[in-house]
Design goal:
The complex is a heterodimer of chains A (about 325) and B (about 290). Chain A is about 50% helix and about 15% strand. By secondary structure, chain A is an alpha/beta fold. Chain B is mainly α and about 290 residues long. Chain B has a single domain (about 85-285), classed as MetI-like fold (Orthogonal Bundle). Classes of the chains: A alpha/beta (about 325), B mainly alpha (about 290).
């Protein structure tokens, strides 16, 4: 018996210690931020920044966990029970879908400044160095022989911004003539040889596989590609008009209430609007909202002529129903 | 009384096995099968039934969905046939010949099982695009692999052929060469030896392996989406459409297409099983 006790002593002590640490860790406040793919590095650094800020102002420790994936997939995970205290996704439509399932209030987007979007981006064109095909604007993407790379808007939230940017431009140019906008889109997507299922996939196809002449991309992804692969290989073309991409953030009220993390969750999102966080967003190539910070990075982000989803397409619910649902304008492009 | 009858029928089932523990293992099997296979399948049917029969029919017969069945099942049939031919050949070589590095080749066959399919898809795409190692020599001759059905077949063959090799190889290894020698000594020529001695033994295993390769190909997602190009009506596979539906929060639509795909695959598998059963019966009658 004594022998057995001695044998067990060590593992039992270790187990008790481990359990103790686990409980101690649990006693800290924890937040889960469910986000989309390209924000991974930004939030890693922002979480450290916020934890310091929270410790300095309240004396409490907070641990923030992150989850990343395609925006729509992430929203579905939250609907299906992933316990996110906050969501920071690529488009409002995905957070709307979570709201429709009763996890947060339907007017969530009016709760934080600037449509609950602390940073923005825009849709630009990435071309090969020297711009051999002289691509200057959206019209050039419909020229015969120009190969355009963009992901499938039905499977990628990011790609829906691309589609709406082109659509909004076509509408404005034709004086709101939908018929001609439709023909414009048909020509443009007729030039697309590959529809990847996600935005990063398209970037890989264009940058690493060397397929296509022009990539329609988020500005932050395009700037990142320049940084990673060298500005001697690619250049960015800013079209004459494009969409203001607003990736929104929201507290998932129901989950935060259950976890008792409402206060810290709200603070987490509000701090995104602070000068420090705005500066960090700019470093990761998202356009800051604060004018003082935006001015500082004026050489990174040139002036663009943008329209919002509301101005260009009457909001996300309309855009989704009209363009991306079954039989919508995107399906018509490929219909018989 | 009824209890006794029930007991009798249990005994009837177990009689053939000398091993004890039938009830325990049977119960466990059924619970396991229910949890792992039946409940998820029932959930698909339940989700699919939410939109009603007309809605279901409308979803699964939309032109884009029909085109995707053609692409998926067509490519899977071609891929499975290729796997059958080359898998059989490889199994034959592995079972009958000794050569240096045989162990390595044998281990390589299992690689597609272990490799994450997305990795396979990405590397195949990297090789076969117009700037890729192999693609750059093919493209000038007008041979396009990446972003065409050829690429889809290639990815599907990659994930499918080990099933054929692993099904046929043990059967060929068990086949006693003395049988062939006996056939030869009785005057059978090479062709007769193959069709009369080897084929009857290897065929059921080949059929099983090919059916598995087909099933795997039809349900494949990870490796195919990278190389397919995913153009609607042309190179869009059915599993991608299911993901597309989910992305639109259309759970019942996704489940409907999944259900249709399930039914199609199941009927093809059933057909293969019937073929096998018929083959065995014919074989049984002859001997």
């Amino acid at each position: 018996m004594k022998h057995l006790y001695r044998k067990l002593e060590k593992p039992v002590t270790v187990a008790v210690l481990l359990l103790g640490t686990a409980i101690a860790l649990n006693a800290q406040t924890q937040l889960l931020n469910v986000s989309y793919d390209p924000t991974r590095e930004f939030y890693e650094e922002y979480n450290r920044l916020f934890a310091q800020h929270w410790k300095a102002t309240t004396g409490q420790d907070v641990v923030i966990n992150q989850s990343h994936g395609g925006s729509g997939k992430q929203a579905r995970a939250v609907i299906d029970g992933l316990e996110a205290d906050v969501v920071t996704l690529a488009l409002a439509y995905d957070i709307d879908a979570i709201a429709q399932n009763g996890l947060l209030e339907k007017d969530w987007q009016s709760k934080l400044p600037y449509n609950s979007t602390p940073y923005t981006s825009t849709i630009v064109l990435l071309v090969r160095k020297g711009n051999p095909l002289h691509i200057r604007d959206w019209d050039d993407l419909t020229r015969p022989g120009v190969k355009v790379i963009t992901p499938n808007p039905k499977t990628s939230g990011g790609a829906r911004w691309n589609y709406l940017a082109a659509w909004g431009y076509a509408l404005r140019k034709s004086g709101n003539n939908e018929q001609s906008a439709r023909e414009f889109m048909k020509k443009l997507y007729g030039n697309v040889p590959v529809l990847d299922s996600g935005a990063r996939g398209s970037t890989t196809t264009f940058v690493q596989r060397g397929v296509g002449d022009v990539l329609i991309a988020w500005e932050n992804e395009a700037l990142l590609a320049l940084k990673e692969f060298g500005s001697d290989k690619f250049e960015i073309v800013i079209p004459s008009a494009t969409i203001l991409a607003e990736p929104p953030v929201a507290v998932v009220d129901k989950v935060a209430h259950q976890h008792g993390t409402e206060k810290v969750a709200h603070a987490y999102l509000e701090y995104l609007y602070s000068p420090e966080a705005q500066d960090l967003a700019a470093k990761y190539f998202y356009r800051p909202r604060l004018k003082a910070v935006a001015d500082k990075y004026a050489n990174v982000f040139p002036k663009v002529n943008t329209f919002t989803v509301l101005e260009g397409c009457g909001g996300w619910q309309n855009a989704q129903a009209k363009h991306f649902s079954d039989g919508g304008t995107f399906d018509q492009i490929y219909g018989k | 009384m009824p209890i006794k009858r029930a007991n009798k029928s249990w005994k009837f089932v177990t009689r053939s096995s000398p091993l004890p523990g039938f009830r325990l293992s049977f119960t466990f099997t059924m619970i396991y099968l229910t949890a792992i296979v039946l409940i998820p399948l029932a959930a698909i049917l339940l989700h699919a039934s939410r939109q009603g029969f007309i809605g279901f029919l409308h979803t699964v017969t939309a032109p884009r969905v029909l085109a995707s069945y053609r692409v998926t099942l067509g490519s899977a049939v071609v891929a499975a046939s290729l796997s059958a031919v080359f898998g059989m050949l490889l199994a034959w070589v592995l079972a009958r010949y000794d050569f240096p590095g045989k162990r390595v080749v044998d281990a390589l066959v299992d690689l597609p099982f272990a490799l994450p399919t997305a990795v396979a898809g990405i590397s195949l795409t990297a090789l076969y695009t117009e700037k890729g190692w192999i693609g750059r020599y093919l493209e000038p001759h007008g041979i396009h692999v990446a972003f065409t059905p050829v690429g889809i077949v290639m990815a599907m063959s990659f994930v499918g052929f080990p099933f054929v090799v692993r099904s046929v190889q043990p059967v060929l290894e068990d086949l006693d060469p003395a049988m062939e020698e006996a056939a030869a000594s009785l005057g059978a020529n090479v062709w007769q030896r193959f069709t009369r001695v080897i084929a009857p033994v290897a065929f059921p295993a080949l059929l099983t392996g090919t059916a598995l390769a087909f099933a795997r190909a039809a349900g494949e997602y990870g490796s195919v989406i990278f190389i397919a190009g995913n153009m609607p009506m042309k190179t869009e596979i059915t599993t991608l459409l299911i993901v597309t539906k989910l992305e639109e929060y259309d759970y019942s639509g996704a489940a409907a297409i999944a259900g249709a795909m399930l039914a199609l695959s199941f009927s093809i598998m059933l057909l293969v099983n019937l073929l096998q059963w018929w083959g065995q019966r014919r074989e049984g009658k002859r001997t």
